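Notes from hallway chat w/ T.B., transcribed later so I don't forget. T.B. wanted the structure written out for a chain they're using in a teaching module, and asked if we could keep both sequence and structure tokens in one place. Agreed to drop them here.
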Amino acid sequence: MAVRLRLQRHGKKGRPFYHIVAADGRAPRDGKLIEKIGTYNPVTNPAEVVLDVDKAVNWLRKGAQPTDTVRSILSFKGVLYRNHLLKGVDKGALTQEQADARYNAWLEQKEAKHETKIKDANLSIKEAEKKRFEEETKIKETRAAAIAKRKKEQLEKLVAEIADAGTEETETEEIEVRTPEGPPKEEVKAEPEAKVKSEAPVTEEKTKKSVPEEKTEKPVAEEKTKESAPEEKAAEPVAVEPVAEKKAEEPKEKTPEEKKDK
């Protein structure tokens, strides 16, 4: 039976999460397994790997064959390097202490590189966020400036309209002051009956006022007649004769009976 070190998929759609397992090569990917030796999460940056190094080395020494992805994971965690050192110890090229010292030095160096990589990733994320924030602030400033400019233009337009309205009002007031008082022609045409009615009592008042004047004029006329009376008496003998002659000379009008006789 060929044992394979491979990945077994778990997790949600679009967010995979893998188990590193030792399973039969003839079994399906997500089928029966022999032993679980670690986990692998590729969603995080950098990828998170949790691995039991001793179990992985044990399976490699027994002849288990890792897949390509699991081989890169084992190389990253130093499993392949430790297996190589143990082979040297078995051959007598190295002692166990020397092999452990070399492995620990390599592991520290690897961890330092990994930490710097994590720091760089976090720094790049922060720089990207800072840049995005600066871009957003610039966009907000430009929008605020545009809004302020628009409001300023609207305010200026409103002030200009108010000023124009004020000048129009002053012009109309000046025109009203210059024009003579009195109703316009249109009002005269629209209210003729009211004027006639208003004139009627005025004429009545004039007639009432004229009545006593006539009364006052009568005694004046009587006085004139009294004064002229002696003058007429004195002139009677001269004026009577021609009047009588004129009466005599005037022919009498014929009656209708006389006209028929003729």
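Follow-up for T.B.: The mean pLDDT is 75. Might be a good example for the class.
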